[in-house]
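User: Predict the complex with S-adenosylmethionine.
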Amino acid sequence: MKKKILWQFFTKQEIAWNLIDLILSKFKLNSISNILEPSSWTKSFVNELNKRWFKNIKEYEIDWNLTKNPKNFLETIIKEKFNLIIWNPPYSKIHSKETFVIYKWKRMKIEQAFILKSLNLLSNDWWFWFILPINFFTNNKNIKNLILSKFNTIYIYQDDTPWFNENINSAFIFCHNSNNPWINLIYKEIFTHKINKDEFIEKALPVYYFNKNKYKDISNIKLWNFIKKVSKSVNINYKNKNLSSKELVNRKININDWDNYSIAIARVWMWIVWKCGLINSKDIINEVFYVYELKKEYSSHKNAILIQEYIRKNRQYFLDISIWTWSPSIGNKDILDLPINIEIKWS
Ligand SMILES: C[S@@+](CC[C@H](N)C(=O)[O-])C[C@H]1O[C@@H](n2cnc3c(N)ncnc32)[C@H](O)[C@@H]1O
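Assistant: Here is the predicted structure with S-adenosylmethionine placed in the model:
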């Protein structure tokens, strides 16, 4: 129950150690003198900072089972300023009412309230480090804008190791102001990539850029070269569909029945299987379909089948660029960026 309400997942000790190591490999942290951990529980970060001679760490923890001195970080008036705030806070779960709070008269997700309060507690020479589930990095535009207004140097780190006992896909972000401003993504020890502010607001996930990078040299011709319109109008009816994604892949359309078909890509709910086939305006669908009308010059039966087959063979691309949050998501732009490595002639 606590797990659900207070979102109690502790950071494994060795993970806290590695994350602090990562920062120390990039920055000298001599000036840090006053540190705050607003939801400390197992003290993973506090202990690791102590081992490295960082002292003066103030902690909060709300749960009286976990501390002798329980305090609600959001409700305590704190006058002190800190030059490092580090946390793995409680965070909201989609569809869970309990993880919303009222902070400064506004209803918001608990991690947003933690961020707003933390930003007000930072002194001038400040550092802000935190872990959050990856859906924070793909949403929360307002909060990310606020972070950009306070910091000019941001690193976001991800790897494949489990950071908690539960399987929660998370990333670690550390923010600072420096003479070398940038937003840098790091995936394991193998990949770093700079992004701009717009990309940070949109999708700030190292693994996504790492996966996209795998396809960068395959071909300059992308699926969008062949597409006239995204989301050609299709009929959606949840009760009376005539076409499921399973039927889509088994469907054979003869050249004689060729009638203005579009490329449809379907995501089969929760299985994250990408299916591709051809549909037209007579079809009625009910799943998560992405529908693309081909340009006139590529819209022959032969070309449509070639493109369909190519997409089917490149399923890994769609898996690689899916963002794995609570439910996998993908955008039109990413689908249309599929490099096409076969020759498709005008028809
Ligand atoms: C995800 S756990 C992380 C614990 C620790 N920071 C770590 O990295 O292992 C979040 C912690 O926040 C505590 N918490 C939840 N709401 C809080 C609040 N309003 N004030 C202080 N602590 C809170 C929970 O009890 C839980 O221990």
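Residues 6-11, 38-42, 44-45, 60-63, 66, 72-74, 87-90 surround S-adenosylmethionine (CB under 6 Å).
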